[in-house]
Amino acid sequence: TDASALDGLERIDGTLSIMSNNDLEGLPDFDLLTTLGGLSIVTTPKLGSVSGFHAVTSPMGDVSFAGSAPLSTLSALSQVPSINKLTVSNVVADTVQILGGVQEAGEIEINLECTHLDALAALHGAASVIFEARGLETAQGTLSSLVKTDGPVSVKCTDCKEIPSFASLEK
């Protein structure tokens, strides 16, 4: 139930996986962690929010958030320049702010229910983008700088007041 011992980590070349932990209620901010190969947070029903990892400035492999209990906030990885793959699957949160500094990415797959989304605002290029949201009220800068994709772009929003604009996407 306590992951505070991880807070002093400065480098993880592989993937940090937090999976199927029914008792974990919080994560440290990982303020000293500057290198992270990948991140996977899956099926953590008592985890109330995920925030931190803001000192990570290394390119990353795969980043995955899936199947957690309803989160008040998902705010993480604001300084990461590139990722191989982002998967946000079956996430329910009030506010989601992730990967604001990422400029290049492989596959992007987002499936979530949230009220406020601010994600991937600096992203210029991706291999593909699959975006599905429910209940979205504000999309702020989400995917607003996306210029090109090498593959498909798919957007599906249910009960959304606003969706990402994709205003910069080349036709």
Could you explain the architecture of this structure?
With 171 residues, this protein is mostly beta strands. 0% of the residues lie in helices and 50% in strands. It has no helices and ten strands.
Q: What's the overall geometry? A: globular
Q: List SSEs in N-to-C order.
A: EEEEEEEEEE
Distance from first to last alpha carbon = 49 Å
Tell me the radius of gyration: 15 Å
Q: Which sheet architecture does the biggest sheet show?
A: 10 strands, parallel
Give the rounded overall mean pLDDT.
Answer: 90
> In percent terms, what proportion of residues is strand?
over 45%
Structural class: mainly beta
Which terms would index this structure?
single chain; 171 residues; mainly beta; 10 strands; 0% helix
Task: Provide a quick synopsis of the model.
The chain is 0% helix and 50% strand.
Question: Topology of this protein?
Answer:
Layout: E1 11-19, E2 35-42, E3 49-52, E4 60-66, E5 71-76, E6 82-98, E7 104-119, E8 125-134, E9 148-149, E10 153-158
Parallel strand pairs: 1-2, 2-4, 3-5, 4-6, 5-6, 6-7, 7-8, 8-9, 8-10
